[in-house]
Specification:
Number of domains: 2
Oligomer: single chain
CATH class of the largest domain: Mainly Alpha
CATH architecture of the largest domain: Orthogonal Bundle
Bound molecules: heme C
Order of helices and strands: HHHHHHH
Radius of gyration: 20 Å
Number of strands: 0
Helix content: 40-55%
Strand content: under 5%
CATH topology of the largest domain: Cytochrome Bc1 Complex, Chain D, domain 2
Shape: globular
Length: 165
Amino acid sequence: MNAARVFLWALLGGGAALGPVAVSPVAAAEQQATSATTVNMDARLKARGLDPAAVARGRVVFDAHCVRCHGAEGKGKVRNWREPDASGNYPPPPLNDAGYAWNHPTEALLESVHVGSPQGYGIMPRWEKKLSEREMGDVVTYIKSLWSDAAYREWMDIERASQEP
Ligand code: HEC
């Protein structure tokens, strides 16, 4: 049981059965460490200008609709995603640092999510009729949260360049 669960369980009254020592000092320390990590994560997202609430919502969308192809946390599932498979389609790429998503400005990422594979040649579904604008925006925000600081910095240059007139 992880610390967050112990905490929740204690909150829900599960701890009462244990008598006075509902949460052990170790669990309490873990609990503190967990919330410190969460705070650091939020700070990291905020430093990027990403809204933690949007990232959290985007993760739910991703886990419901995207994970089966792009893998958990966008890590990808197919090793040779750069080469077309037997049917001539490109396999789903990773969306974390290992792929190219961080080379693409927000507008291009949103476009991919809206319309799917370029010109319909490929297996990336078209999401614009299945997801709301907010869900599509949130899932792109979540994808940005998957990148390392180094990739994110490069992406910011690409984003800025894309917005120049
Ligand atoms: C059936 C498999 C499949 C599912 C499900 C899927 N994708 Fe994809 N996705 C692909 C493939 C394949 C590509 C590469 C496009 C191509 O070459 O056809 C792609 C490309 C992308 C790209 C462009 C990557 C880049 O480098 O710019 C983004 C962004 C993306 N997907 C996001 C999503 C999101 C968000 C979802 C869920 C809402 C999703 N995908 C669901 C297969 C899938």
